[in-house]
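Why should sequence recovery work at all? Because a backbone constrains its sequence more than one might expect. Tight turns favour small or flexible residues, buried strands favour hydrophobic ones, and helices have their own preferences. The token representation captures these environments compactly. In the example below, the structure is given first.
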């Protein structure tokens, strides 16, 4: 959800030179987005298109300028990656727990947390770009 929400915000702000890709520590490559993730995104007008999951790899990390982790635990698993930050470090809103396996209500709550975090991140990007 985070990739699509941030991409949507960047597009609406007219920022075209920031690339956003999500990858999970435990994700299986090529899995479809969960039904509840897709429903949560559709409820705010974001089309989940043909999104497919991908596992975080060393190659992805080599091509990345910044990694944003949803929780402190995720960041700890990336020990030694000095360009990894938690959502909380960047936004002050706390961790964003993974709703995997939860009901639609949990996905909606998580989506709202991601949306709030992405809004703050967008403002920081715009400030850095002088927009």
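From this structural description, the recovered sequence reads:
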């Amino acid at each position: 959800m985070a990739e699509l929400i941030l991409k949507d915000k960047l597009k609406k702000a007219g920022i075209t030179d920031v690339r956003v890709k999500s990858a999970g520590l435990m994700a299986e490559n090529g899995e479809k987005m969960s039904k509840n993730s897709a429903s949560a995104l559709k409820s705010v007008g974001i089309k989940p298109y043909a999104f497919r999951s991908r596992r975080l790899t060393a190659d992805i990390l080599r091509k990345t300028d910044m990694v944003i982790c949803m929780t402190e635990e995720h960041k700890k698993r990336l020990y030694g990656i000095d360009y990894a930050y938690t959502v909380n470090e960047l936004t002050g809103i706390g961790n964003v727990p993974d709703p995997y396996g939860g009901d639609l209500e949990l996905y909606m709550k998580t989506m709202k947390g991601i949306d709030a975090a992405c809004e703050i991140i967008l403002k920081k990007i715009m400030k850095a770009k002088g927009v």
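A few observations help interpret the result. Strands lie at 67-69, 84-86.
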